[in-house]
Structure prediction request, 279 residues.
Amino acid sequence: MEAVSRTAQWTAAARALETERDDRLFADPYARTVADGIGFELLERYAGAGTVPFLAIRTTYLDRAIGRAVEDQGIRQVVFLAAGMDTRFYRLGWPAGVTVYELDRPALLAAKADMLAGEPAPPGRERRTVAVDLTKDWTGPLKEAGWRSDETTLWVVEGLLFFLPEEAVRALITTLSAHSAPGSVLLGDVISRSALKNPLSRTFLKALEEDGNPWLFGTEEPEQLLTDCGWSPREVRQPGEEGADFGRWPYPVPAREMPRIPRSFLFTCNLSTGEEKAA
Ligand SMILES: C[S@@+](CC[C@H](N)C(=O)[O-])C[C@H]1O[C@@H](n2cnc3c(N)ncnc32)[C@H](O)[C@@H]1O
Prediction:
């Protein structure tokens, strides 16, 4: 497995810790299995910067937003970009007829298949894994797996964008809008550029770099990025703000006007109709 794919075991370890709390926000009963020992080692190595509470918040925010997209908006194609060790296919209650596509590097998907071998698919839903490099053309393999660009899609890009150079981030998000039917939704997270240089996270950032998966991309203006790439941001939240706190965020939330603050953003976007730009 590539170094960057190990980070999927790191985030799975954080989900295991949340699952094991009495006051858990969600239960991911597979997280400890897919995290394996390495996930917990990385949790220690990358400690600090509010990682564990942030990952609990991110998971909960996205779980709920995914639920709304499929229940209220009736979307039946769900694509997890850089799915990693995500087990939402198994652990969330999906409406009948949902197809979940999990895209990631081939070695990660193979390792995950081994770890979850024998886990029966819950009835009424389907899961298809697609081995890709998301910095290259990946829409062909997704189509071959059965995904249709003329039907609405829920795209989830969680824990990926900071690992990509800016051109690749913009190309990826633009590809999503270019291949989305009206009514499609994009969910995900991104960090601020200042988070790439936060002196308080120096040890954490250095460890990521030494391990071969440096953080490369951040923006102070996620709304602008998403709009530039064909999306209409419906909601952008920092952890600790209303709708992205869940009783887990231990720090004050800095106002958006304050410069040079390391931040994370969680976002929900609709496909742009073009009218927003004209307005
Ligand atoms: C931090 S993990 C996030 C996994 C999962 N979405 C989560 O939040 O737990 C980053 C994931 O990005 C994947 N990844 C990184 N670069 C990629 C690329 N170029 N193509 C496909 N997947 C990539 C890694 O394999 C890894 O699974």
